[in-house]
């Protein structure tokens, strides 16, 4: 026999037919997806549970992401805060497609959604940051400002009925524009210069204080010394002022004139020469 | 059934593909990504290609021409089924977990080891790095800084130059795999946003000095809170500030402040030195003055005691002795001008210091 047995052929053909049928009527939705079933242009139902599903052969399946999706500002926005300071703000939005049918009708595809969300977010950024001072945006109330932006975006998105739910809007960066940045650098520099000058002045003040205090103490010590000296002299010399004057004069002559560099012009009349002229008779 | 009695050699002439499920070393057709190193068994025996081809053509002839055709078709079908079946084997490495989906829907998480899933198109296994810690650098490295990620505004409207590292790991594999698109980007964006929020409410000085730990902890907590809200299935292990400095344009000014502080300190030190010197000098003065005065007084007292015994004599003696000592060392010019009518003119030499005027000029001078 040169033929394949009939049962085998039948099984093969049957399997092939089944496969083709399955291909037209079965479809998978994976864990990350949700699907919209479109029957000749008409979105008939949505499938959000992952797994194997049945459709009619004429239905097309459009799959959408079910996950938390990020949308980043196309361009950092320059926004004016309530105090007229300008800020460059960069935000990201996280959203989820909650209603594929609505999403398909209003936006169609993600790029459109991104575009739409970008505009809504930018408007909200301007609005909310415009209400706060730059200081509040950067420092004090960033969390509140972000929450306000998120609520505003969420409300707007819900009202527009886009089939999208906003999970979060967060400011990634809120920086000063480059020119203001330069101004901040300058301010930081001048603040530091002031600090440095202050430190140096304090150093100088300290130096003077320390030296002056030492001078004061030193003078007290010297004064004390002089007082003691005066007291000692008064005690001893005071006993006989006449002799003290004589004695003191003697030691003064010795000290003042006894160094050998003096030329004395003397008269033989002086007391020292009492015997010089007149001889021992005096 | 024709394939039940398939005891003979397999359709390809090689040993029959018996029970492929147990045979881990058989090539897996559909090995998931990240599969580990293949088991390296014994090297295959050298193939005799000609003999193999001969046998193969023999088989072909048998299969499609000979009488055993039906059996052979059944055998090939069985072989194909067996191959398909063993393609479901896969290896989960110790640092991984696998999330298995059945027709796309998550069905289970597989732990490390050799695992099996029903092959395509029914089930699919996806490997997720699980216990290994991932590192994310923000602001770049030291050699390659990403400047626009580094500059951040602080709470006191200064700018700090900061880079940091986030260490994280997957804490829930199915969440990580299915809940969020592009989870690694989420982590990076959340890290940047959280760090900037925390820096934005902290003053510059603590960031540069003592407040680092606090900034790290706050950022870590904030990141975790946000990521939990997104349900990413990730846990933050640590946030580490790598470098926090003042931006380059103000660095010099900061250094100058440090220099000024040092200068002030050294000025004070110098002053303390000077002060000590001044005080010591005064103490020395006192010591000297008082002792000298005491000495002088004491000497006087003693002389006075003698003087009291014989005032006139002592007085005379003191005078003469003193004059002697004074005149001894001095140049002396003695002029008796009682008879002179004209002023006496002395030669300038008379006023030279003693050494230079050994020869005393005046005729009246006595040596």
Average pLDDT score of chain A = 87
Helical stretch tally of chain B: 9
Radius of gyration over C-alpha positions of chain B, nearest whole angstrom:
55 Å
Estimate the strand proportion of chain A.
15-25%
From the N-terminal CA to the C-terminal CA of chain A, the straight-line distance is 186 Å
Poorly predicted tracts of residues of chain A: none
Stretches with pLDDT under 50, minimum 5 residues of chain B: 1-44, 356-367
Largest interface: A-B, 103 and 115 residues
Please count the beta strands of chain B (DSSP E, at least 2 residues each): 10
- How many DSSP-defined strands of chain A? 10
Average residue-wise pLDDT of chain B: 79
Topology (elements, then pairings):
The complex is a heterodimer of chains A (282) and B (367).
Chain A lengths: L5 H20 E4 L3 E7 L2 E6 L3 E4 L4 E7 L3 E4 L4 E4 L5 E12 L2 H7 L3 H22 L2 H7 L1 H19 L3 E12 L2 H60 L3 H17 L5 E4 L7 H5 L4
Antiparallel strand pairs in A: 1-4, 2-3, 2-5, 6-8, 7-8, 8-9
Helix pairs in contact in A: 3-5
Chain B lengths: L48 H16 L4 H18 L2 E4 L3 E7 L2 E6 L2 E4 L6 E7 L4 E5 L8 H4 E3 L5 E12 L2 H6 L4 H18 L3 H5 L3 H19 L3 E12 L2 H62 L1 H19 L1 E4 L33
Antiparallel strand pairs in B: 1-4, 2-3, 2-5, 6-8, 7-8, 8-9
């Amino acid at each position: 026999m040169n033929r394949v047995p009939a049962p085998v052929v039948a099984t093969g053909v049957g399997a092939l037919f089944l496969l083709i049928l399955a291909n037209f009527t079965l479809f998978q939705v994976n864990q990350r997806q949700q699907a919209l079933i479109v029957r000749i242009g008409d979105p008939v139902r949505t499938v959000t549970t992952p797994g194997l599903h049945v459709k009619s052969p004429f239905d097309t399946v459009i799959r959408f992401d079910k996950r938390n999706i990020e949308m980043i500002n196309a361009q950092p926005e320059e926004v004016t805060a309530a105090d007229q300071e300008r800020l460059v703000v960069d935000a990201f939005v996280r959203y989820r497609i909650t209603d594929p049918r609505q999403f398909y009708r209003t936006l169609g595809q993600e790029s459109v959604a991104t575009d739409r969300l970008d505009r809504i977010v930018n408007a909200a950024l301007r609005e909310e940051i415009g209400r706060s001072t730059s200081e509040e945006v950067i420092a004090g109330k960033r969390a509140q400002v972000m929450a306000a932006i998120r609520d505003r975006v969420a409300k707007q998105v819900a009202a527009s009925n886009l089939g999208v739910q906003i999970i979060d809007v967060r400011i990634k960066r809120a920086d000063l524009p480059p020119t203001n940045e330069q101004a901040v650098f300058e301010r930081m520099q001048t603040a530091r210069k002031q600090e440095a000058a202050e430190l140096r002045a304090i150093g100088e003040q300290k130096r003077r204080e320390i030296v002056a205090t030492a001078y004061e103490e030193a003078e007290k010590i010297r004064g004390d010394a002089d007082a003691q000296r005066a007291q000692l002299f008064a005690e001893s010399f005071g006993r006989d002022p006449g002799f003290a004057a004589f004695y003191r004069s003697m030691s003064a002559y010795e000290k003042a004139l006894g160094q050998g560099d003096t030329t004395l012009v003397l008269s033989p009349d002086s007391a020292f020469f009492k015997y010089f002229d007149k001889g021992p008779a005096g | 059934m024709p394939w039940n009695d398939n005891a003979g050699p397999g359709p390809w002439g090689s040993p029959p593909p018996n029970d492929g499920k147990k045979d881990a070393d058989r090539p897996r057709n559909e090995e998931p990504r990240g599969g580990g190193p293949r088991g390296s068994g014994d090297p295959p025996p050298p193939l005799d290609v000609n003999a193999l081809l001969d046998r193969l053509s023999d088989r072909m002839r048998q299969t499609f021409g000979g009488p055993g055709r039906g059996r052979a078709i059944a055998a090939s079908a069985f072989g194909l089924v067996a191959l398909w079946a063993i393609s479901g084997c896969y290896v989960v490495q110790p640092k991984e977990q696998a999330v298995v989906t059945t027709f796309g829907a998550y069905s289970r998480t597989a732990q490390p080891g050799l695992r099996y899933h029903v092959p395509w198109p029914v089930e699919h296994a996806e490997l997720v790095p699980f216990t290994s810690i991932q590192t994310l650098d923000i602001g770049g490295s030291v050699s390659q800084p990403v400047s626009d990620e580094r500059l951040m505004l602080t709470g006191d409207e200064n700018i700090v130059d900061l880079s940091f590292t986030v260490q994280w790991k997957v804490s829930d594999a199915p969440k990580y795999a299915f809940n969020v698109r592009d989870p690694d980007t989420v982590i990076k964006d959340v890290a940047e946003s959280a760090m900037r929020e925390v820096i934005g409410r902290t003053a510059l000085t603590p960031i540069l000095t003592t407040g680092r730990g606090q900034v790290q902890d706050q950022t870590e907590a904030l990141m975790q809170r946000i990521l939990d809200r997104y349900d990413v299935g990730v846990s933050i292990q640590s946030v580490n500030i790598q470098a926090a400095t003042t931006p380059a344009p103000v660095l010099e000014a900061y250094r100058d402040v440090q220099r000024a502080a040092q200068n002030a300190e050294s000025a004070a030190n110098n002053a303390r030195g000077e002060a000590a010197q001044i005080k010591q000098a005064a103490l020395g003065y006192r010591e000297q003055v008082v002792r000298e005065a005491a000495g002088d007084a004491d000497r006087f007292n003693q002389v006075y005691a003698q003087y009291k015994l014989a005032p006139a004599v002592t007085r005379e003696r003191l005078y003469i002795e003193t004059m002697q000592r004074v005149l001894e060392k001095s140049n002396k010019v003695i002029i008796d001008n009682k008879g002179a009518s004209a002023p006496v003119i002395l030669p300038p030499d008379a006023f030279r210091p003693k050494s230079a005027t050994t020869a005393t000029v005046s005729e009246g001078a006595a040596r």
